[in-house]
Amino acid sequence: MLAGNFRPDRKRCEETIIPIVGDYSKARELIRRGLLELRESDFAHTETLRDGFEYDAYGLLVSSGLARATGLRHRKTWYVKLMIRVEDGGQLVFCVSFHRLQSDLERNGGVLKPCW
Hints:
alpha+beta
């Protein structure tokens, strides 16, 4: 995943991230760097989708350094969903939804409140 083997949710990127950072490649870089900041304390819960796939949800408070470097400024709280899927041919793909946190989220590390 660190090398870029992840698939961001394109719709969420267009709605939330691209208006802030400018384009899809910068959005992918923000997501990649945000994923590197995830810790066990950020984990919130696991959910099962209607299609049977499971995803793990996290609440992320990005570092000040990442916020400055990517132009997030005060937009520091993010809701992250991670899902691993096996595609035809057996390749693992990490699917990521990365968007603003809209409500309080109970995590291992305590409640994260939206900061937007």
